[in-house]
Amino acid sequence: MCGALLKKLESYVRLSHSDKKALESAFAEAPNWVGARKDLIREGETPQGVNLIMEGWAYRYKQLEDGRRQILAFFLPGDLCDLNIELLRTMDHSIGAITSVKYQSVSSARIEQLTNTSPRVEKALHWETLVNIAIQREWTVNLGQRRGIERIAHLFCELFLRLSAIGQTSASECEMPLTQTDLADATGLSAVHANRVLQELRSTQVISFNGKKLKIHNFSLLREISLFDESYLHLHTEGSKFDAP
């Protein structure tokens, strides 16, 4: 039930058999479904648990009274939407589904029980939190310093590597259900500017689209265009170096 989460956590910390069993037990509740372009939870509502994305894509966003939207993060399978969210009395942002999303809501009490009984899982979840903070810092740099083409190219690099880490890429191809409006709202561009950037990236033949799939023909060039340094994703840390009983 939490295979993608397990893959990701094991890139941070090598988990033992008992660690994995404890993780599976904590996330053993029946899943929920929400349709594409619907909200899992809205700003102002009371959070009921920690949401784990199991299938599909979701996003964190803020929306102004006049309808303008800023996308703050994308959630992929295996992502936890704010590990300590139940500390909030009310949500200060919304979580929406891009595709149809299968997710599970787990109480903070179950998370606390898991981390109390499995110190290595607790360490891995701390890594997960730190990586999410690092991604947020990189998004701030994207909005504040990179040019339009650099912003979108950087986002494509990030999403491809995050999907690759959970086994959801095929060679140089991955799912890409984002609309031009989604890309614009995540990178601080207008929809027209985002369209021009996509045309430019296609014209250089560094990427192409086939339906809702992105194909990166030259990852090295895409990395160069976007000034991308993947170290902030911390994809290869303790998990590749240390074993567990």
Question: Can you tag this structure with a few keywords?
Answer:
single chain, 245 residues, alpha+beta, Jelly Rolls, Arc Repressor Mutant, subunit A, 2 domains, four-stranded antiparallel β-sheet, globular
Word description of this protein:
This protein has two domains: 134 residues, Jelly Rolls, CATH 2.60.120; 80 residues, Arc Repressor Mutant, subunit A. α3 packs across α4 and α6 crosses α7. It has eight helices and twelve strands. The chain has a four-stranded antiparallel sheet. It has a four-stranded antiparallel sheet with strand order 2-7-4-5. A four-stranded antiparallel sheet has the order 9-10-12-11. The protein is α+β, with helices and mostly antiparallel strands. The longest helix has 27 residues. The radius of gyration is 18 Å and the shape is globular.
Output mean pLDDT: 93
Euclidean distance between termini CA atoms: 23 Å
Report the radius of gyration as a whole number of Å: 18 Å
Number of helices: 8
Write out the CATH superfamily name of the largest domain: Jelly Rolls
Q: What spatial order of strands do you see in the largest sheet? A: 1-8-3-6
